[in-house]
Amino acid sequence: MTNALTNTSAAKASDQATRSRWWALIVIALAQLMIVLDTTIVTVALPSTQQSLGMSDASRQWVVSAYTLAFGGLLLFGGRIADLVGRKRTLLTGILGFALASIVGGAAANGGMLIGSRAAQGVFAAILAPSTMSLLVTTFTDQRERAKAFGIFSAVLISGGAVGLVVGGLFTEYLNWRWCLYVNVPIALVAAGGTVALLPPQPGQNSGRLDVGGVITGGGGLAALVFGFGKAAQDGWGSASVVGPLASAAVLLSAFVILQRRVRNPLLPLRLLKNGNRVGALLAVALNFVGTFGMFLFITYQLQSVMHYSPAKAGVAFLPLMAMSAVTATQIVARLLPKVQARLLVGPGLLVSACGMFLLSFLTVDSSYSTYILPAEILVGLGSGAVMSPCMNAATRGIDPGDAGVVSASISTSQQIGAAIGTALLNTIATGVTATYIEHHNATSQVEANVQGYREACTWAAGILVTAAILALTLIRTKPSPAIADHPATRQ
Fold first, then answer.
1. How does DSSP assign 51-98, residue by residue?
2. pTM of the predicted model, to two decimals?
3. Which of 2, 54, 235, 439 has its CA 20 to 30 A from that of 117?
């Protein structure tokens, strides 16, 4: 009798713990949705925002890049802060700060104020994001549960960007582009309430000092790198405003590596990068976003400026991408990940995305949505949905709890720096091709020249994704291990 009662109590406790984990996932996903949403929500509103605030074509990209630049440059700092002071505290701080920056951005009176508020959003997102992923890693330790949780989280990461495009289009057409920023406030309030009520305390696990030198050299190097790429669209690759930041990036990032070898409590312990699976996963994530993120910008302008879609219709046109990526991540990859090697999901996924981007290289001013854009969205959604979850699993597999924050931050850094560089690099390519095309075709319309730029940029993006696939297939070697706990004893 006693044994039966004990077993019943244990079963109830286990059920309650399981429910608590999945409720925690909802809160974590909601917080992550907010920061992913803002990576793209302003993109579909950019034509209206640009006109409203009188911004130039060269400066418009900074509405997107300022966010991803600050986000990616400070993510390692945010990850180490999460490890030092506790993930629940940093999560709550990031959520509330993000909401405040969104209010300022919504009230922007000029382009500089908007770009500044977007950078502030990126700073608080850098504090918030590592906490969400590290909480996910430490909450779900069973391999099967982790595969499902990563699938849901990946769907938020991928489809959240498309949700931002849809919501941004609807707000821009029926309300005002400013609501693309104000929308974060109610989301933040719900996420903050859920954090306080549902997430258990997460005390810091590392009493070491913060690596200030690493923050300055690593964050500064990444910021200089993205800034240099971004200025190339306006000033050209040989200008001092491009060469200077890129040279500074090389010096700062080299100094960062040297510092990480010497300091006692490094921002990014280099021992974590001795794992080939982790390195392969980080490279695959970065190059995936380099190759696909510019797609949002080009398709948005193709739909609105060339095909004359309304902002709302342009946003809805991205729904197939969102649906395909969500289905792939949650229904296909989540089932295959415990059974199939990660590289056999990541590599083919990147190649499928490359096919989608290559299809966009055939765009013309007369192209229809169903001929090129819809098939490309389906292919990129299918491919991207197969990349993120296996990469997160490969990168975080077997890590110690004390390193969860910094490893999670490394994944988010790869994602955000890839997105920032991808937007800047591909926009630079498109702008350069457009200018050259007009110079050699005096009678050509601006619209036709713009489309020529989009085509060339998408060709480059396809090549980047093929390169990413080769690296993933070569470096990622994790084996499937269903139904076992992923703790240090099971490291590969």
1. HHHT--HHHHTHHHHHHHHHHHHHHHHHHHHHHHH-HHHHHHHHHHHH
2. 0.76
3. 235
